[in-house]
Amino acid sequence: MSSAMQIFLFLLLGVALLAVLGILAAGLYALFRGGEYGRRWSNKLMQWRVLAQFTAIALLAAIVWVARAGHPH
Q: How big, in percent rounded to 5, are the helix, strand and coil portions of the chain?
C-alpha cells in the first residue's frame, strides 16, 4: 500500500483521538456538574466515547495492516 494511505490513516487516527479526548472532557464536565444535566448527558457521552475509542482502535489496526502489507516477511 502507498504511504499516502498511511498518512491518511494517521490523520484519521489523530481526529479520532481528539474526538475521544473531547468526549471524555465533556463527560467529566457532566459528571462534576451533576443534577439534571449530568443525568441527561453522562450515559450518552459514555456511549459516544466507547464508539470513538472503537473507531480509533480500528484505525490503528488498519495502519498496522497497511504497514505490514507494504513490508511482507
A: 90, 0, 10
